[in-house]
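FORM 12-B: Structure-to-Sequence Request
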């Protein structure tokens, strides 16, 4: 761990599972300090959108939870003639060094499900735990990513990625998780659930990236457990992918030169 790590409660966070800690978390991000989240549930009600920052967060494993709760967080947009409600817990553009250690993100999909379905789509409306568009480096170490309505983590054009000892669980809905009245379009024909991967890495990289994914779990996600999209070169080892809605591991967009060892998929 780094020196000069600040406690998130120094910024006014409560972590009691009731109080809205959004402002405290936003101030902590802006500070550029390394932040420790002691055991507790930290409520987030608005997307935290940042650019050009370093983030170093530490927690006490699944005892340190950042949880998304409905408020005025959904931002209606139009996409292909549909009303889209999109919220990322963390939306990072042109980030620097991003490190998350021993912390849990819970996007609380069931709290958003009814509003999403009433607006006519299980395909384009979503919440995402962490969404990254371009960063120097990303580390997910001992992190749990759970209950996003669509992607657990979406990573675009980030050259250096290390994921280890992390869990991506229950992001999106599988067909068997949805009732008949929930299913529309392709869903209604029984082809798929929500387009939800535990982790989606994409970007048409200009040079071979350094992507290492090891000792991690991708379980019960609505679509793919792990999706590599337009990735040239990745090393994936010692992962399990069980009971996902479609593929445990999927390679799209001409992904190539990926090395896999000890990858176990079932269901």
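FORM 12-B RESPONSE
SEQUENCE OUT:
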């Amino acid at each position: 761990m780094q020196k000069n790590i600040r406690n998130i409660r120094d910024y006014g966070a409560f972590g009691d599972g009731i109080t809205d800690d959004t402002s405290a978390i936003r101030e902590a991000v802006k500070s550029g300090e390394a932040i420790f989240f002691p055991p507790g549930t930290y409520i987030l009600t608005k997307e935290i959108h940042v650019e050009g920052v370093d983030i170093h967060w530490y927690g006490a494993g699944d005892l340190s939870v950042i949880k998304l709760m409905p408020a005025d967080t959904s931002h209606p947009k139009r996409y292909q003639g549909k009303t889209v409600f999109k919220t990322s817990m963390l939306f990072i553009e042109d980030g620097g060094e991003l490190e998350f250690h021993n912390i849990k993100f819970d996007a609380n999909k069931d709290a958003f499900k009814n509003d999403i379905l009433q607006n006519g789509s299980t395909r384009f409306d979503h919440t995402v735990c962490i969404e990254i568009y371009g960063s120097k480096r990303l580390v997910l170490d001992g992190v749990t990513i759970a209950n996003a309505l669509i992607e657990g983590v979406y990573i675009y054009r980030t050259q250096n990625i290390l994921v280890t000892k992390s869990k991506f669980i229950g992001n999106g809905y599988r067909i068997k998780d949805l009732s008949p009245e929930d299913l529309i379009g392709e869903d209604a024909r029984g082809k798929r659930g929500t387009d939800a991967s535990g982790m989606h890495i994409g970007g048409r990289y200009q040079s071979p990236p350094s992507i290492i994914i090891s000792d991690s779990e991708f379980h019960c996600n609505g679509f793919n457990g792990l999706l590599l999209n337009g990735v040239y070169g990745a090393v994936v080892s010692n992962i399990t992918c069980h009971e996902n809605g479609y593929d445990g591991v999927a390679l799209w967009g001409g992904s190539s030169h990926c090395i896999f060892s000890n990858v176990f998929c079932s269901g």
